[in-house]
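ASSEMBLY PREDICTION REQUEST
Request ID: AP-0331
Submitted by: J.K., bench scientist
Number of chains: two
Total residues: 581
Priority: normal
Notes: Please return the full assembly, not individual chains.
Input sequences:
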Amino acid sequence: MSATVAVGRARDVNVWAVIARTFLYSFLVCLGVVVIYPLIWMALNGFKDNAQIFGDPFALPAHWSWDNYIQAWNQGVRGYVTVSILVTVASAICTVLISAWTAFGLTRTKMPAKPLVIAIVLGGLMLSPTVAIIPLVKMLQALGLYNTYWALIILYTAFRVPFTTFLIRAYMLDLPSDLDEAATMDGASEGQIFWRITLPLCRPIIISCVILHVLFAWNEYLFAMIFTSGSDVQTLPVGLTSIMATHGTNYSVVFAAMTISALPIVIVFFAAQRYFIRGLSEGIGK
Amino acid sequence: MQARFGSLLSFRWAAIALVLIGWFVYYPIVDNFIVSTTDQDIYTGEVTNVGLANYDRLLHDPIVLVALWNNCLYAIISVVFQVFGAFLLAALIEDLRSERWRRLWRAVYFVPSAISITVTGLLFYFIYQPQIGLLDAVLSRLGMGQLVQPWLGNEHTAIYAIIAMSQWQGFGYSTLLFAIAIQKIPRDLYDAATIDGAGALRRLWSITFPLTREMTGLMIIVTITGAFQVFNEVMVMTAGGPNNSSQVLGTWLYQKAFIEDNFGYGAAIAAVIFVLTMLTGAAQLWYTKRRRVQL
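STATUS: Completed
Returned structure:
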């Protein structure tokens, strides 16, 4: 259909251009199918029973019953979702607040040795969790934080503060400072300026940072796998592998559990696409 | 004096961040080097200093070579698909006339990147399975039944199957970033080129490519860094098997440190990953510095 529109618009109808265009459109559609179909297959398999899963993989489910989804939810997924929400929300709040404070200090105060502080904070971007994992295990065991939510909340915050500070700082640098100068004249303290003026002005980038953090924390696997072993403190990604280990032969429940864990983040992405893209495009300079 | 005190006091804004990062990000890196020169008995808690013995062992460990090669394969294939492939795809999408379609394709291709690697890894674990999987079913319907096999169970295909999943998941992310970079190119450049009779390929090569070169450079570095830190998808799909054929440095570290309880040797592998990512990180820093006057 798009190809015919293109033909109508072109002044002299070039056959090769039409063929090329049709070919390109089909390519985009095929690629879209390759990307989306496996996800649909995953959700559909959650509706099938095991016999059907071993049958024709392209068939639609025979009955649309939510049994597998309910079973997955009751056999662990509810607990994992609760832990994931708790860890994600807590670490998002900590990360964004601490990063905003740091960015404010770096852009709006007379802090000495700013270049050094910037180097220390942003240098954290280059250090990967994999390299720190063995010392962190020893450290968190010594602190008695092993196998608690706190381990994940602290680590997610510590490892995401550099990136988030980088984003918020770049945004604050571009904000005009006449408002806070006026407030200083009126006798406002730095704290009041931060909470009443700068933070509200940074709303768009704060939302982007929260969303990028949610994406990170909801999906994180390495720390979650190593620092939690009890099923009452495991997040969804680790919980899924536990479900796989215990219900490995009941494929339909595993598929249902996978779908349940993927759905919230896909919804978040589509609902907040604009902020998502802003955060990504500003963050690529990291 | 007052002013001096006031400016020192403003450190409070960065204090929490500095303590957190110093304690949980920097200190472990230093400690990792110390651990790598020891042998630790996790049951008795006894620590013996072994000097560089763990590094010596590393040099003679054939699996380290396999892992390093797999990380390199990861890097090469990802640069081809997630940098150059994504660039072409982004150029193609941004060339569409209707903004609604452009937005749709960008969003559709991005969806897998939003989903956890654990979920996509498990999903492809099933897709690659011969009994219930999609891949072998598609191949037999297309009359390529001789290719049907357990993709993750075969030593020769396991790592490629994992890398393929990773491309499926990641290309939409870089396509989106390239699309954003292309949108920043002034439209009149294209209009002028069209009037001068430049075709689509010519515009791509002479305008789009040079004007997004910075993004391309950055993406190559980011992708290579990521390739040396790969862990999740390999862990979820094969845990390094069969017969260690799909090990990468990250999973070999995990195997040594947490399955075989050899912290010292694991830390030595971590040190190798550290050096490799520092090299690409330094390249990245240099690149960003050159690009922007003010970081």
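REVIEWER COMMENTS: Chain B has a mean pLDDT of 87.
SIGN-OFF: pending second reviewer
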